[in-house]
């Protein structure tokens, strides 16, 4: 129930849901306008929401938001990492039974990107791997790493529903194995917030982000809306808002700063 509520709030607060609600309110005011003031308010809401959708769907804006959300550099393996294990966070979509894989679990596009990099790091460093996510995500990660990359997962954490729980439920597993420093694999926009949660849980982190921002080449198309750019903007806004919420909870002492 809590997860369903969080998903509902996320869809209502973030684009396109939030802007579509504003557009609907504007259209409703226009349909029931009884005065010039009401009509102006309706047009303002409707056109403002449509303009907001256009702006957030521009690749230029999406790239700028992603850059703002990325606060950790990419991992450089020129020197051996001091980490003792690799932790790969679940995220995106995963299928419990994929027909094309003989009804075995399969990772979605975003999750597969993390698995690909996690497998690369596992082969380069020979470090053990922990995967963490929902039961479906974690099982898909375990199966995919073994089947598609030849990497065996040492630990599987299946209870977590968000980044906070990823850290809280993974930390005891790692500490029991004598591990206090990890390579943390997740998306670049998510890395900063995820690293903060693991640090608060008492685990030192070497960030290992995927999809690291690089300077794009802007063209006329960079200012035209696209579905992919809107998704990128939404993901970046989610992480920026999530980090703000995390910091607010710390200030209000509703979440602890470090492991007890």
User: Strand fraction band?
Assistant: 5-15%
Q: Could you estimate the helical fraction of the residues in percent?
A: 55-70%
Total helices: the number is 9
**How many strands, which pairing sense, and closed or not: the largest β-sheet?**
5 strands, parallel
Q: How would the global form be characterised? A: elongated
**What is the CATH architecture annotation of the largest domain?**
3-Layer(aba) Sandwich
Q: Structural class of the helix and strand makeup?
A: alpha/beta
Q: Uncertain regions: pLDDT < 50 for 5+ in a row?
A: none
Explain how this protein is built.
This protein has 260 residues and is α/β, with parallel strands linked by helices. The protein has 2 domains: 1-57; 79-211 and 243-251, Rossmann fold, CATH 3.40.50. The chain is built from 9 helices and 7 strands; from the N terminus they run ααααβββαβαβαβαβα. A 5-stranded parallel sheet has the order 5-4-1-6-7, sandwiched between helices. A hairpin with a 5-residue loop joins β2 and β3 (104-107). α4 (59-69) packs parallel to α9 (227-251). The longest helix is centred in the last third of the chain and has 25 residues, at 227-251. It starts with a helix and ends in a 9-residue tail after the last helix. 37% of the residues are buried. The mean pLDDT is 92.
């Amino acid at each position: 129930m809590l997860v369903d509520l969080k998903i509902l709030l996320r869809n209502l607060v973030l684009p396109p849901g939030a802007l579509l609600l504003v557009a609907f309110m504007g259209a409703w005011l226009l349909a029931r306008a009884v005065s010039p003031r009401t009509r102006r308010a309706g047009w303002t809401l409707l056109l403002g929401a449509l303009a907001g959708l256009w702006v957030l769907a521009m690749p230029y804006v999406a790239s700028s938001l992603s850059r703002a959300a990325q606060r950790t550099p990419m991992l450089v393996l020129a020197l051996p990492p001091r980490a003792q294990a690799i932790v790969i966070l679940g995220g995106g979509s995963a299928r419990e039974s994929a027909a094309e894989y003989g009804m075995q679990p399969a990772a979605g596009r975003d999750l597969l990107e993390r698995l690909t990099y996690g497998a690369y790091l596992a082969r380069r460093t020979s470090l053990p791997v922990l995967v963490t996510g929902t039961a479906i995500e974690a099982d898909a990660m375990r199966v995919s790493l073994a089947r598609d990359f030849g990497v065996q997962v040492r630990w599987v954490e299946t209870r977590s529903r968000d980044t906070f729980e990823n850290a809280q439920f993974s930390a005891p597993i790692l500490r029991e194995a004598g591990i206090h420093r990890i390579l943390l694999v997740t998306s670049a926009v998510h890395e900063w917030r995820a690293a903060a949660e693991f640090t608060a849980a008492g685990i030192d982190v070497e960030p290992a982000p995927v999809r690291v921002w690089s300077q794009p080449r802007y063209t006329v198309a960079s200012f035209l809306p696209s579905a992919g750019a809107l998704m990128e903007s939404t993901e970046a806004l989610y992480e920026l808002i999530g980090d703000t919420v995390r910091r607010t909870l710390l200030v209000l002492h509703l979440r602890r700063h470090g492991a007890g």
